[in-house]
Every structure is written in structure tokens, then in C-alpha cells.
Amino acid sequence: MEVYSNENEQVDALKGFFAQNGKALAIGVIIGIGALAGWRYWSSHQDTSSREVSATYQQVSGALDASKPETLTAAAKFADSNSNTYGALASLDVAKRYVDNNELDKAAAQLQSGLKATKDANLQAVLNLRLARIQLQQKQPDAVLKTLDAIKGDGWTAIIADVRGEALLSKGDSKGAREAWSKGIASNASPALKEMLQMKMNNLPG
User: Fold this and answer.
1) What is the tens place of the pLDDT at every residue in 78-131?
2) Is the per-residue pLDDT at 41 higher than 50?
3) What is its subcellular localisation (predicted)?
């Protein structure tokens, strides 16, 4: 059993934030640069570009269908050509469809590409968590642990503990798994996630 709700909520919140604040973000980048005339021209240009990128992202994301390879190709192309938050979000969307098709190597590569496209810590955390789960499916526990170490922020403690425990258990480290899940239970996690971690601890040998 896996819990994705916290990650999905973060992704939805990030999408909403950039949809509503694209103009403000564009303006903030160049405060203090250039004369008033240059500022007005640049602001107008960036605002238009941001809206266009956002609209294109919404289009390719909405059209994604794992049974239609051409929609995956279009979304992957958009992600590769946009080294920004929208490109990273597209990488998340494409990776999910690759997982649905059991193309784990492609999914992992897409997530790694998305990590290079954004500096937003929360979005990076979601990308890394998805990547760690895929690496777990690929039976690469050491890679999982390295990926989890790159995630910053106390809000991810319980979810990280969940995946870390699974990776350690797959290495035969029951003690390490117990310690990881105990840390997750002690964190500010949701009751459902704490209950799941407790069940996993209860099923450990010894």
C-alpha cells in the first residue's frame, strides 16, 4: 500500500500557484533593472510569454493519454524545451504515464530531467519522491536512499520515512526499517499515514 495524497496535493497546489501568480513572478525577476520604458516592455513581454507557456502546458497535460504515444511524445518534448517550473510539472505528468505503461527507465529519466528544470524546493521534493518510489520498484535500494537524502523540508519527514524503511527492508535491514518508520510515526504526519507505518512495523520479524 502506498500513500500519494500528500505528494499529489503539493503538485496541485504548485500548479495553482504558478497559474495564478505567473505575472507576479515574471515581474519580480527584474525589479530594479532598466529604465521605466525598458521595464514596461520587458514586463509586457514576460507576462505574455508566461501566459503562453502556461497555456501550452495545460494543453499538453490535459491531452496526455498513456494509450496514445503521440501525446506522451508531445508532453515530453514540451518538458525538454522548457527549463522552468512548467517543464518540471510536465515531467511529472509524463513520468506518471510511463509508470502506467510499466516503462520505469523512461519514467526515472523524465523525473531526473524535471529536477534540472526547477529550483522550487517543494516541486523538487515531489520529483525526488516519485523517483525514489520508481527506484524501489527497480530494486535499487541504494539509489533510493541517495535520492531521499536530497529532499529538504520537515513536511516530507513521514513520507520519506515510509520509502526509506521499504528500501532498508529490501536490503535485509529490519532494524533500520523499524527506526525509519518510528521516525515517521513520531513526526507531524496524518493519522492515516501513521497507522500505515505502524502496520508495517507490526509486520516486521522479531
Assistant:
1) 898 888 888 899 899 999 889 988 999 999 999 999 999 998 888 999 999 999
2) no
3) Cell membrane
* Domains in the chain: boundaries: 5-152
**Distance (Å, whole) CA 160 – CA 11:** 16
> Does 34 score more than 90 pLDDT?
no
Question: What is the per-residue pLDDT across 139-149, written as a single tens digit (0 to 9) for each?
Answer: 999 999 999 99
Per-position DSSP letters for the chain, written without gaps between them: ----HHHHHHHHHHHHHHHHHHHHHHHHHTTT-S-HHHHHHHHHHHHHHHHHHHHHHHHHHHH--TT-HHHHHHHHHHHHH--SHHHHHHHHHHHHHHHHTT-HHHHHHHHHHHHHH---HHHHHHHHHHHHHHHHHTT-HHHHHHHHHT---GGGHHHHHHHHHHHHHHTT-HHHHHHHHHHHHHSS--HHHHHHHHHHHHTS--
